[in-house]
């Protein structure tokens, strides 16, 4: 049996936080191997990247998710009892609930709500001074996804809800105040979502059929029982929170249009070009660094031993930047997706494998739709200036974002 290359450091948690998205990739290059072992949060952890690794990682017979997510992440990003930590039949049943929300018509409706909200805000931006795109898009997405999900928002409530949802997103891999803001955001968010679910169940809040609020409130588990209030709240937030997180991708798309202005014209004229552009935004820019699982039962793979219970991380960012999969991976080149037939294990910004049978992101089509709408609006509905600002992306900060949040000025409506 071959020995997995192993980090010598007694614990690499601090190094992970320092290196951020590049932690696994840098070590893979150092060891000349797409697999190595290290200790994170005092626990031995196998790190993997690349296509064969992704295929292995998404084999549900080999890995489980229960207990894979560190408790800190559950207290902020994901909550407890949600679909992310389920396995087998329970996962399948819960995941089907999410996927039932993702019909092509429903996804288009969310895209339309977002675009309508965007167009409605342009007049105010025309009169305003500098507009920070990330802030605006996050709040537009809160409005759009709440309307889509059947969640009522009182006037003046949008900023508070957006703040809580963003606090959960920003605390994903963090320590100190950012982590604590995430915990507060989660507590308040779960209380809010739990109240909504209870009111729908009590018949005091009408919720449209097929919308996420109603679907979650009425969902029954495999034994016919409704979800406990806290779990239902977690699942409703599992729709609202990541939709607001798409604001990060929208800002990256705006940055890409700024850095590669030739693509402005191409995406305006051609749907295929928009598709390629959006896929390259998802591949190129850093978003979700890793996915975590545990070995279900001991097995051997490529001559390496994976002991039962061992935590395993798949490097999503590193797989999207793997030089064997993506020629010149550090170049932003949408044309690489021309004629791309799709591969569930190479482009993995939102996880890999299948949507229904595995843990691949339930909202992938939503993210793609919203990104396409944003690119169309940024190139066809408004003109703007991009004043000097700090657009650097710090790969140590997870999730990453251009430092300025992408500020635009002199917004003018077109079309
Ligand atoms: C910014 C865009 C998004 C990114 C980068 C993203 C990324 C991810 C990733 C990496 C996973 C975990 C994959 C794994 O564990 O193997 C995931 C899971 C998930 N995502 Fe997303 N996501 C995004 C948008 C969305 C949206 C818009 C929704 C819902 C409307 C959503 C709902 C979910 C759910 C429910 C899961 C859990 C799936 C499961 O465990 O079976 N995501 N996402």
Key traits:
globular; alpha+beta; three-stranded antiparallel β-sheet; 11% strand; 10 strands; binds protoporphyrin IX containing FE; five-stranded mixed β-sheet; 415 residues
Could you give a short description of this structure?
The chain has 415 residues and is α+β, with helices and mostly antiparallel strands. Helices cover 50% and strands 11% of the residues. It has a five-stranded mixed beta sheet with strand order 1-2-8-5-3, sandwiched between helices. Strands 4-10-9 form a three-stranded antiparallel beta sheet.
Walk me through what this model shows.
The protein is of the alpha+beta class. The protein has helices at residues 13-19, 23-31, 51-57, 71-78, 88-100, 104-127, 133-149, 158-170, 177-202, 212-218, 229-259, 262-269, 271-284, 316-320, 364-380, and strands at residues 35-40, 43-48, 63-64, 131-132, 290-295, 299-301, 304-306, 311-315, 382-385, 407-413. The strands form three sheets. It has a five-stranded mixed β-sheet with strand order 1-2-8-5-3, sandwiched between helices. It has a three-stranded antiparallel β-sheet with strand order 4-10-9. Helix 13 crosses helix 15 (364-380). The longest helix is centred in the middle third of the chain and has 31 residues, at 229-259. It is globular, with a radius of gyration of 21 Å. The protein starts with 12 loop residues before the first helix and ends with a strand. 44% of the residues are buried. The model has no long low-confidence stretch (mean pLDDT 96). It binds protoporphyrin IX containing FE. Protoporphyrin IX containing FE is lined by residues 83-84, 95, 98, 238-239, 242-243, 245-246, 248-249, 287-288, 291, 316, 349-351, 359-363, 366-367.
């Amino acid at each position: 049996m071959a020995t997995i290359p192993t980090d010598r450091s007694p614990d690499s948690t601090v190094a992970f936080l320092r290196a951020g998205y590049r932690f696994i990739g840098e070590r893979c290059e150092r060891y000349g191997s797409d697999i190595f072992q290290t200790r994170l949060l005092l626990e031995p952890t196998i790190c993997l990247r690349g296509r064969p690794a992704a295929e292995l990682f998404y084999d549900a017979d080999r890995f489980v998710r229960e207990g894979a997510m560190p408790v800190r992440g559950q207290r902020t990003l994901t909550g407890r009892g949600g679909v992310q930590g389920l396995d087998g039949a329970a996962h399948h049943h819960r995941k089907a609930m999410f996927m039932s929300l993702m019909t092509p018509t429903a996804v288009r409706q969310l895209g339309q709500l977002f675009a309508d909200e965007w167009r409605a805000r342009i007049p105010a931006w025309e009169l305003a001074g500098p507009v920070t795109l990330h802030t605006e898009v996050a709040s537009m997405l809160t409005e759009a996804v709440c309307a889509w999900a059947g969640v009522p928002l009182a006037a003046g409530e949008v900023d508070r809800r957006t703040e809580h949802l963003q606090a959960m997103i920003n605390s994903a891999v963090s320590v100190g105040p950012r982590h604590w803001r995430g915990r507060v955001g989660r507590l308040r968010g779960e209380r809010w979502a739990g109240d909504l679910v209870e009111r729908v169940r009590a018949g005091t809040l009408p919720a449209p059929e097929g919308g996420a609020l109603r679907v979650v409130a009425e969902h029954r588990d495999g034994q016919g029982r409704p979800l406990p209030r806290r779990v239902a709240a977690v699942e409703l937030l599992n729709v609202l929170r990541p939709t607001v997180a798409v604001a990060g991708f929208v800002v990256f798309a705006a940055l890409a249009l700024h850095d590669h202005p030739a693509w402005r014209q191409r995406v305006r004229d051609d749907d295929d070009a928009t598709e390629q552009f959006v896929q390259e935004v998802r591949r190129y820019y850093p978003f979700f660094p890793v996915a975590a699982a545990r070995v279900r039962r001991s097995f051997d793979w490529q001559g390496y031993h994976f002991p039962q219970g061992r935590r395993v991380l798949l490097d999503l960012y590193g797989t999207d930047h793997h030089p064997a999969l993506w020629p010149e991976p550090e170049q932003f080149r949408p044309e690489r997706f021309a004629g791309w037939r799709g591969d569930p294990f190479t482009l993995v910004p939102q996880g890999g494998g299948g949507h229904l049978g595995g843990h691949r992101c339930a909202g992938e089509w939503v993210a793609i739709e919203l990104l396409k709408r944003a690119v169309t609006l940024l190139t066809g509905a408004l003109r703007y200036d991009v004043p000097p600002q700090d657009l650097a992306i710090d790969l140590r900060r997870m999730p990453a974002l251009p430092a300025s949040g992408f500020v635009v000025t002199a917004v003018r409506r077109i079309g």
